[in-house]
Amino acid sequence: MITKWAHHLYRYDCGLFHSLNCLFERKALNIFFSRITYFGGATFTIIFCLFIILFAESPVKMWGIESGLALLFSHLIVMLIKKIYPRERPYLSIKEAYVDINPLKDHSFPSGHTTAIFSVITPFIIHLPITSLILYPIGFCVGASRVVLGLHYPSDVLAGALLGSLFAILAVSIF
To answer: Could you say which DSSP state residue 39 is in?
Structure first.
């Protein structure tokens, strides 16, 4: 029963993957997603948090600390989950998947880029809800970019968004 349910979810996940991954062929969208994906990368998220911590005034400085802590602890969990649940990346297991040159070789679940961006943006959204008008679209585009670029299943992205948001909410509630 559980395996049948899991199989249906996997097929649905693959269908969603194909729906977004086919955008890879559209040059303008490919360029956009190839650039915005870096907003969820380690370099950008760490530098962003450090910049806010070092140069912003209170209370924004505290939001940067919350983001940094959420980023740190969420990524410890991401690394653990990737070891426990070594899911193959979709471009390795789905024929006809589009992927860029030199794709990632580590495990797919959950999306580290999506976890990172949501762990960083969520404290700002909690403290200043109007920022959600800008920050949520950025977060969603980073998540979508991971699927469009052939690196993650939609469920990897969903799990990353939930993990990043959860750790950010915990960081905000602690501080």
So the answer is: G
